[in-house]
Amino acid sequence: MSHFSILLGQFDPTPSPSMATSKKVITREEWERKLKEAGVRKDDMNRIVMNFLVTEGYADAADKFRAESGTQPDIDLATITDRMAVKKAVQSGNVEDAIEKVNDLNPEILDTNPQLYFHLQQQRLIELIRHGKVEEALEFAQEELAPRGEENKIFLEELERTVALLAFEDLKNCPFGELLDVSHRLKTASEVNAAILTSQSHEKDPKLPSLLKMLIWAQNQLDEKAVFPRINDLSTATLEDPAV
């Protein structure tokens, strides 16, 4: 349970009989007093920050934060550099290099994850098509991807969508043009990043985004019964006075 949820439970938002149709008003003073009473430990906050920096691959920032806060990361920061090199290779379209780097880190990552390997090979095919290498793309699809498509219906459907790009001259405006969008590279890179983290016995997703989603959910739940200082801009985390 989050500290915000605990805080939420400290209030009784049920209107009094004389305010049956109105919401309970929680003043800024009362809200801030309850926030202090919630007792969020700084060490807990530091661990959440470190978890985000490590998971997202900010090696330099994580190292500086360790020095400033004394918070120790739960993995070797040197491994972040290697992981980010893989991610950067995929994002730049150099998938073959990314595969080599993954195998250098841990060959079992791709050996035990056929879906990830297929998606990397699919991205290689997309890059060939992007650069107009039609014959090479067809040969690669037939030799590397078609056998995997015969074993897996979902892989076959993805392969068919990718090869269909070759039927269009205007790739950007074709029905499957999203495969050529940078977002598809980012999706594949994120999948590789998660697999590497899992192989290192580390959580694949940072805790911070989930906590922020919980904050939004808790505020929306309380908003049905009470008027209270809200955080509307998550980037600044500024409390805004209730509108009464």
UniProtKB/TrEMBL annotation:
Domain CTLH, chain residue ranges per copy: 79-136
Domain of life, source organism: Eukaryota
InterPro entries given in the database record: CRA_dom, CTLH/CRA, CTLH_C, LisH, Ubq-SigPath_Reg
One protein family per Pfam: CTLH
Residues that span the membrane, as ranges: none
Listed SMART domains: CRA, CTLH, LisH
Full protein name: Glucose-induced degradation protein 8-like protein isoform X1
